[in-house]
Design brief:
Layout (H helix, E strand, L loop, with lengths): L1 E6 L2 E7 L5 E4 L6 E2 L10 E5 L5 E5 L6 E2 L9 E3 L5 E4 L2 E6 L30 H21 L7 H30 L4 H28 L6 H24 L4 H25 L27 H24 L1
Parallel strand pairs: 3-4
Antiparallel strand pairs: 1-2, 1-10, 3-5, 5-6, 6-8, 7-9, 9-10
Helix pairs in contact: 1-2, 1-3, 2-3, 2-4, 3-4, 4-5
Length: 326
């Protein structure tokens, strides 16, 4: 059997399992040493069970064993060809030594890196994460400038950008300290990238929401759909932070994020019920005016407007008569 060691960057090494049992952990006395702060000194043992089958056994580690995508810990996982076992942030994958590999690539003499990283790999670099934060700060400044109608708005725009930087730094710092305490890893730039990405998504969602209210002011679905999307964004942010600050499987991270969204939704609903819904004759409009072609703007003809006004007057008169009778 061939054992592959994978992390977020891909396959790190391959080991032929010739001698068993084999211990796995971060300690230097192990047969397979993993450079993963979420792995214990002696984390697991690979060996044969009573029936002669190859298994991976947990040695009482902090984060335990699990299968990728699995929500529950396991004390023993079967190690058949193709099986994967998660230890901390590392995945052990078992391969058949007789498995066929792709044919060799022709050597043209050019210095080409065949190991092209995926499109999102740049987010693992400090420069990429800092770039996301800088883009979010610029987006906040641009959004503030576009929504400001004062003659001199430079101070307002600068204040909004600085406020974003301060909030994002404090929020990310809290998560980074928590990750340091739990997993011995200080991922400040990673948490800052998650926060900045959430702000960028929130700004984009706000623009879409404004245009929706402008083009479809009477749409009853826009409000509930926007609320669901906002709550989903909150859940995604919490799951993203937990991915950096903990060793929880993906399902548990999303459960925690969606649970947080559910609590916020319950608090918002309770706050709405507690508000004093007093009558007001001042009309309120959701959204602002947009520069759009006339054909896009929903309008009514003068005849239709007159019919709606007459119908509204009849309803008001009926309410007045009802009130006079009481």
């Amino acid at each position: 059997m061939i054992l592959e060691v994978l992390d977020a960057r891909g396959v790190r090494t391959r080991v032929r399992l010739d001698a068993l049992p084999l211990t796995v952990g971060r300690g230097y006395a192990n047969d397979l040493i993993l450079d993963d702060p979420y792995v214990d000194g002696r984390h697991a043992r690979i060996g044969l069970d009573d029936a002669g089958a190859l298994v991976v056994e947990d040695l009482g580690s902090l984060n335990g064993l699990s299968t990728p995508g699995g929500a529950d810990r396991a004390t023993r996982v079967a190690a058949a060809p193709g099986a994967e076992v998660r230890l901390g942030r590392t995945i052990l994958r078992f391969r058949d030594p007789e498995e066929e590999v792709p044919p060799a690539l022709p050597d043209t003499g050019e210095e080409v890196d065949r190991r092209v990283p995926p499109p999102t790999r740049w987010l693992d670099s400090p420069w990429g994460r800092a770039g996301v934060a800088a883009t979010a700060a610029a987006a906040v400044a641009a959004s503030t400038w576009l929504g400001n109608y004062e003659r001199s708005s430079a101070s307002t725009v600068l204040a909004a950008a600085l406020l974003f930087v301060a909030f994002a730094s404090v929020w990310s710092g809290i998560w980074a300290v928590a990750g340091r305490v739990v997993g011995q890893r200080f991922q400040f730039l990673g948490h800052l990238a998650v926060t900045s990405g959430a702000v960028l998504a929130g700004l984009a969602l706000g623009v879409v929401q404004q245009w929706t209210y402008f083009l479809f002011p009477d749409n009853p679905v826009a409000g509930p759909v926007s609320a669901v999307v906002w709550l989903g964004l909150v859940g995604a942010v919490i799951a993203g932070h937990l991915a950096l600050a903990s060793a929880l499987p993906g399902r548990r991270r999303w459960r925690a994020g969606l649970a947080t969204s559910a609590v916020l939704a319950a608090l918002a609903g309770a706050s709405a019920l507690a508000e004093d819904d007093t009558f007001s004759d001042v009309p309120e409009f959701q959204g602002v005016l947009k520069l759009a072609p006339a054909a896009w703007v929903p309008t009514s003809t003068p005849e239709e407007f007159g019919q709606m006004a007459a119908k509204l007057r009849e309803e008001v008169d009926a309410l007045a008569d009802e009130g006079a009778e009481k």
